[in-house]
């Protein structure tokens, strides 16, 4: 444990700092009677603007009367002011970068006229960035023509014409209503559910439907999925009403052009290729950034404020709409949160070394882009950002992207053949099990 003291006569205080580990600091701050008197006067003056005393206009009551009539309020406000001022001085004098506001452990006005407070704060870890210049990365070399061909095939199926038929067969599209029950109590239901029926689909929306016709009512025993409290994993029933059966006829070239709102098939090809290239560029960027973060996190070992990791985990859980998590998922969320926080610290340290800043023009460019995407004015975007205190987050996001751009500009990138070509779209964006 290290201890350090600083005395500043002008500010009439003494600060003692204790290091309680790599990221924890405790400040013991003492103000002499002169400093306390100055704080009391300032507190009384501020309170006089808020209270009304008989015989005086608002804000004109003498300080000595305010101190006498509102002793408790003056002391509380003076205590707050001294604690806040002492915290700022303590950080400045000890060259500490705090991670948020401090926890006030104790405050007291002493009999000798002095004021004492004890504060606890987590501080930013000290990081000396390394290994980010000329970092080795790999990217997958994709066959754009092959992906475009697969995308065309996918779009033809996705926008296929539906031809009505009577009986369900493998590969047909079915439209149905269903009700899942347990002991005659409805657990969940679905209206006008429409999806492709395939032999490999999970029951009861798989091959058990083969042979049913439009208008048929079908009842089958069903094991209740997880998430239905006392009924989970017990046997209930599912009632299915078939409302429509269709075969799919893939779109021809003219139909594809119509869907893409172009005149010729060459224009359709160009539009699809542009979309594929944008998608691949985004995925390539994401893949390279993930490699950078993996390598940098491995190179830099440092402690992270536990409160920040906890807050990040809560944010991820909310963003993923996870009402509850089991032990395994909680561990994964923790690891991801820790990685995200370390990523931010390391990139900030690199940005400081390389003196990467965000200009007013770049901030305005971001706001303009958001306004165009939402079809609203830039003034509204700025107003919303200020009201939600998000401007600092915008600056941080722009800066970290610039830092990533810098790292990528210096990186040694090697291309590898991508044997598995990815599809940009899926033929039917539906759940495997409509009950989930």
The proportion of residues forming helix, as a percent range, comes to 40-55%
Note the run of SSEs as H and E: EEEHHHEEEHEEEEEHHHHHHHE
> What is the averaged pLDDT score?
87
Shape descriptor reads elongated
CATH H-level superfamily title of the largest domain: Trigger factor, C-terminal domain
Q: How many independent structural domains? A: 3
In CATH, the architecture of the largest domain is Orthogonal Bundle
CATH class of the largest domain: Mainly Alpha
Largest sheet, spatial ordering of strands = 1-2-3-5-4
- Provide the β-strand percentage band: 15-25%
Describe the model.
About 4% of the residues have low confidence. The radius of gyration is 33 Å and the shape is elongated. The chain starts with a strand and ends in a 19-residue tail after the last strand. With 436 residues, the chain is α+β, with helices and mostly antiparallel strands. 44% of the residues lie in helices and 22% in strands. The longest helix is centred in the middle third of the chain and has 35 residues. It folds into three domains: 120 residues, Alpha-Beta Plaits (2-Layer Sandwich), CATH 3.30.70.1050; 89 residues, Transcription elongation factor, GreA/GreB, C-terminal domain (Chitinase A, domain 3, Roll), CATH 3.10.50.30; 155 residues, Orthogonal Bundle (Trigger factor, domain 2). The strands form three sheets. It has a five-stranded antiparallel sheet with strand order 1-2-3-5-4. Strands 7, 8, 9, 10 and 11 form a five-stranded antiparallel sheet that branches.
């Amino acid at each position: 444990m290290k201890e350090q003291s600083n005395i500043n006569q002008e500010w009439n205080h003494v600060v003692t700092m204790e290091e309680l580990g790599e990221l924890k600091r405790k400040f013991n701050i003492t103000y002499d009677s002169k400093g306390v008197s100055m704080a009391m006067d300032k507190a009384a003056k501020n309170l006089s603007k808020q209270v009304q005393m008989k015989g005086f206009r608002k804000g004109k009551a003498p300080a000595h009367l305010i101190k006498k009539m509102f002793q408790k309020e003056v002391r509380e406000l003076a205590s707050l002011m001294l604690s806040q001022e002492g915290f700022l001085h303590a950080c400045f004098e000890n060259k500490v970068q705090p991670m948020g506001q401090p926890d006030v452990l104790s405050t007291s006005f002493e009999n000798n006229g002095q004021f004492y407070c004890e504060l606890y704060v987590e501080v930013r870890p000290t990081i000396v960035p390394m290994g980010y210049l000329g970092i080795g990365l790999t990217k997958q070399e994709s066959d754009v023509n092959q992906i475009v061909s697969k995308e065309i095939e996918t779009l033809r199926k996705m926008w296929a014409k539906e031809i009505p038929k009577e009986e369900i067969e493998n590969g047909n599209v079915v439209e149905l209503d269903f009700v899942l029950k347990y002991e005659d109590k409805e657990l969940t239901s679905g209206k006008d559910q429409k999806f492709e029926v395939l032999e490999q689909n999970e029951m009861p929306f798989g091959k058990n439907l083969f042979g049913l016709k439009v208008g048929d009512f079908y009842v089958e025993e069903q094991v209740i999925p997880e998430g239905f409290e006392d009924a989970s994993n017990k046997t209930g029933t599912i009632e299915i009403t078939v409302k429509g059966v269709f075969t799919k006829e893939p779109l021809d070239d003219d139909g594809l052009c119509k869907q893409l709102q172009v005149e010729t098939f060459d224009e359709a090809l160009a539009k699809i290729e542009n979309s594929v290239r944008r998608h691949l560029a985004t995925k390539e960027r994401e893949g390279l950034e993930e490699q950078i973060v993996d390598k940098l996190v491995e190179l830099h070992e440092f402690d992270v404020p536990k409160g920040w990791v906890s807050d990040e985990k809560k944010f991820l859980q909310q963003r993923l709409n996870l009402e509850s998590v089991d032990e395994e998922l909680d561990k994964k969320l923790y690891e991801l949160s820790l990685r995200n926080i370390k990523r931010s610290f390391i990139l900030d340290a690199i940005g400081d070394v390389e003196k990467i800043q965000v200009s007013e023009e770049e901030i305005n460019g971001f706001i303009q882009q958001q306004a165009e995407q939402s079809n609203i004015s830039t003034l509204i975007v700025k107003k919303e950002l200020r009201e939600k205190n998000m401007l600092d987050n915008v600056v941080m996001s722009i800066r970290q992207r610039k830092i990533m751009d810098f790292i990528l500009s210096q990186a040694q990138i090697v291309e590898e053949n991508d044997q598995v070509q990815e599809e940009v779209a899926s033929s039917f964006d539906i759940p495997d099990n409509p009950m989930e």
